[in-house]
Design a protein that fits this description.
Chain lengths: ~575, ~260
């Protein structure tokens, strides 16, 4: 099936491209650009937290009102925090692992020539870019970017600039951007689902899919169900702000000496809608990383994945249970304490498939013949971070313990470990693994390993101390710790974390150098540099426009036939029809 | 391969700080706080053992199964092991949460003490105000239109209501030691949060809702109350204190407040 022909001009080829590979790379670079903004914001935040009164000339130049005279105001801090969270969650963690790598490799791994709906695919990328533009523009309007956090809880987010600077036009732009992003994600989700269901090549039964494809598929389903709800919630919030409705606003509000005329709404309604999306979003960010990790652990230990079916069931269980646990974000919200009990049991239940995955990863490595490529190092780092970040969830999932930990740095440490850095390690792993296929050249392994080790130590140094701060009761979202006796004593820990953040951010220069240098001057990549089995390694690097050069691949086996006894080499391609006694 | 010792080293450093308790909870001041710490330690020991074993195992397989010229073993998995670890984690995780439910139930589900000392908490951007009903035991009527922070009426107390004449309004929380307390949480603008570390208690204060919070503090002292739900630009300085005093001191304080009205 030829969905469309190879385009000729530059614009159709690289800008408004219908080719899933170009769109995947576009998404990847959108995420890369976003991560630069997101990390810069976090460095400014970390600087301010330990130097709240410092005068920095260029702060004043950048933000003449919010950092008048070069001193960052608390409201500017909160704007940076809101935008850091939003940009990282939506434009980095949601785009690169799924829309970036997924777009590029899902069709190839299932033997398709493109996504099911190439035009929709192009639209979804450009809509995402538009959303990013609208989001960033919030920095430049009067009052600046919103300060209500990435969770945008009303009434703070719903009553306009009465509740703070940035809550005027800045907050409106934030909601509009998120709504646009939801639209884009819905288009992407439909496309992924249709592609996986309809375009698998001959022989590619569901049980032969690489685990990456399973995670992209389940992530797409989560996106379809989650973003639809967030879109609706966003529309209601806009109406509360601009049309005088009261979905989230109760009666009896007095904000900045002004009595508001709202009545009948509930701030908790927003929280339910938001987290109904927000919790699955965590899995949207992490599932593709789990897929990549599974794929790499098997490939580089030259062993079949341990418990393939158990892994698939675990992915499905995580996807399903992911929609039943949103209430654990709301244990302290004032919702019924009975429902907290139900949500906590369901939350613990979702720990089970996560544990299954970890056991199976160790089982895959067990008895293997491990090749320490940079890609593999990041996959191993992912496992370590996933364990660390997952275990702190056992504390937070208990409403009893959340009575203390809610909204402390313990939470910040937990989610940065698991959905932040673990997911980003998944992206690094994917980058080092697939770069040769995407750009036809190899990345530098030495530079890659130095980058890996320093980053691995760096992220532990930043995020582990957050757990101790949480145990000491340090609330999150504070711009300054000098007003409380108990917080002043914790300042040395914050200073340490700030320096660790500078260090880790500086180390990322190595990655950028490696990425761009290798694109230009890396060693030429062969077709299958890792001796891997899946379909993308049966075609040239980089692949031709229609992926398989007019040839229709046929699949004869699962994706993990490594070190099969009696086979000629230690891997058998999925397209290899040779009979072995092992299946 | 260097990764194995690095993972182990990180594991040991992390375990050390959890054992040394370098940065830790303040001592609990209530029965609930003691029960809380027990549940925390139970969870810490269980997760700590899993953490140590999992990271140690990761390091071990990295070291043991590095490419040294052997052929990798061939296995697609083992259903017996899958069943064992699935069942074991399910029991363990669900077990932990069930062991802690009585703590949650004691805070939120138990029969409230009708003799608990009622105190109203009003949160606003960016301050807490506390109100005591006075000798008549009744809170006076309030009205948003009467709110005047500058004139010292953040609650909007109505002078015309006789029940409100004896109400005591305070910027800090004073409670008698060893007596059950009932906080009635209100917000007049955005969501705030009441948190006292030493009580091991936290509760959002939501506009439009009246949320009760029961506790009993046993150890006299002064404890900080940091707002713990993002409420705007002054969130980081939204602070009050809770002073736990002997019953006699508490009564004396109330009388002083009434006399100063």
């Amino acid at each position: 099936m030829h969905a469309h022909h190879a385009p000729q001009g530059f614009i159709r080829k690289y800008v408004f491209s219908l080719d899933h590979k170009v769109i995947g790379i576009q998404y990847y670079f959108l995420a890369l650009f976003s991560v630069l903004i997101g990390v810069s914001l976090s460095l400014l935040m970390r600087y301010h937290m330990v130097n709240p009164d410092a005068k920095v000339g260029w702060f004043g130049t950048l933000w003449p009102t919010a950092a008048q005279g070069g001193i960052m105001t608390p409201e500017l801090y909160l704007s940076l925090m809101t935008m850091h969270g939003t940009i990282m969650v939506f434009f980095v963690l949601t785009t690169a692992p799924q829309s970036g790598f997924g777009n590029y490799f899902l069709p190839i791994q299932i033997g398709a020539e493109d996504m099911a709906f190439p035009v929709l695919n192009m639209l979804s990328f450009w809509t995402t870019l538009l959303a990013l533009g609208v989001m960033v523009s919030a920095f430049f309007v009067q009052g600046g970017a919103p300060l209500s956090g990435w969770t945008a809880y009303p009434p703070l987010s719903a009553v306009g600039k009465l509740s703070g600077p940035g809550e005027g036009l800045g907050q409106t732009l934030w909601i509009v951007s998120i709504a646009i992003f939801c639209g884009a994600s819905l288009m992407g989700a439909i496309n992924f689902i249709a592609t996986l269901i309809d375009l698998r090549c001959q022989g590619m039964s569901l049980w032969r899919l690489p685990l990456t494809c399973w995670t992209w598929f389940v992530t797409a389903i989560l996106g379809l169900l989650g973003f639809a709800v967030l879109l609706a919630a966003g529309v209601l919030l806009i109406l509360d702000r601009t049309a005088g409705t009261s979905f989230f606003l109760p009666a009896g509000l007095l904000v900045s000496d002004q009595i508001l005329n709202h009545k009948g709404g509930s701030p908790l309604l927003w929280q339910h809608l938001f987290w109904f999306f927000g919790h699955p979003e965590v899995y949207i960010a992490i599932l593709p990383g789990m897929g990549v990790t599974s794929q790499l652990l098997s490939t580089f230990s030259r062993k079949p994945i341990f418990g393939y079916k158990a892994m698939v069931y675990a992915i499905l269980a995580i996807g399903f249970l992911g929609f039943l646990v949103w209430g654990h974000h709301m244990f302290m919200s004032g919702m019924s304490p009975y429902s907290a009990m139900a949500f906590s049991v369901l939350t613990m239940a979702i720990g089970v498939p996560s544990a299954i995955k970890t056991f199976n990863w160790i089982g895959t490595l067990w008895g293997g013949k491990i090749h320490f490529t940079t890609a593999m190092m990041f996959a191993l780092g992912f496992v370590s971070l996933f364990v660390t970040g997952g275990l702190s969830g056992i504390f937070l999932g208990q409403p009893a313990l959340d009575l203390y930990f809610h909204d402390t740095y313990f939470v910040v440490g937990h989610f940065h470990m698991i959905m932040g850095v673990a997911a980003i390690f998944g992206m690094f792993a994917g980058t080092f693994y697939w770069f040769p296929k995407m750009f036809g050249r190899m990345m530098n392994e030495t530079l890659g390993k130095i980058h890996f080790y320093l980053t691995f130590l760096g992220v532990y140094a930043i995020f582990t101390p957050m757990h101790w701060l949480g145990i000491a009761g340090n609330p999150r979202r504070y711009s300054d710790f000098t007003n409380f006796d108990f917080l002043s004593k914790l300042l040395p820990v914050h200073t340490f974390m700030t320096h660790a953040a500078y260090f880790t951010a500086a180390v990322q220069i190595l990655f950028f150098v490696n990425l761009f240098w290798s694109m230009k001057a890396g060693k030429k990549a062969p077709m299958n540099p890792w001796n891997a089995t899946t379909l993308e390694w049966t075609i040239p690097s980089p692949p031709p426009f229609d992926n398989f050069g007019g040839h229709h691949p046929v699949v004869y086996r699962g994706a993990y036939d490594y070190s099969v006894p009696g086979a000629a080499s230690d891997f058998i391609m999925q397209t290899d029809p040779v009979e072995t006694h092992a299946e | 391969m260097l990764l194995a010792p690095i993972v182990w080293l990180l594991t040991i450093v992390i375990c050390y700080f959890f054992i040394a308790k370098t940065w830790w909870f303040p001592p609990p001041i209530s029965q609930h706080g003691i029960a809380y710490d027990e549940q925390f330690m139970r969870t810490l020991v269980i997760t700590g053992v899993i953490f140590f074993l999992a990271q140690f195992a990761l390091g071990w397989v990295i070291l043991r199964y590095r490419d040294d010229g052997r052929r990798a073993s061939y296995s697609h998995g083992n259903n017996k092991w899958e069943t064992i670890w699935t069942t074991a984690t399910a029991f363990l995780f669900i077990g932990i949460v069930l062991m802690g439910t009585h703590i949650w139930a004691a805070v939120h589900l138990s029969e409230p003490d009708p003799h608990a000392v009622p105190i109203e908490v009003m949160a606003k951007q960016f301050a807490f105000t506390f109100r005591y009903p006075g000798p008549d035991g009744k809170f006076g009527h309030t009205d948003l239109k009467l709110v005047n922070d500058a004139a010292g009426n953040p609650m909007g107390l109505d002078d015309k209501d006789p029940a409100g004449k004896d109400d005591i309004v305070s910027a800090s929380l004073k409670v008698p030691a060893g007596k059950p307390i009932k906080l009635i949480l209100h917000s007049r603008d955005v969501i705030h949060n009441f948190f006292v570390r030493e009580l091991r208690l936290k509760q959002d204060i939501v506009p439009g809702m009246e949320i009760p919070l029961y506790f009993q503090a046993d150890t006299p002292g002064t404890y900080e109350i940091p707002c713990s739900e993002l409420c705007g630009l002054g969130h980081f300085q939204m602070r009050s204190t809770m002073q736990v005093m002997s019953e006699a001191d508490f009564e004396k304080w109330k009388q002083e407040q009434a006399a100063n009205k």
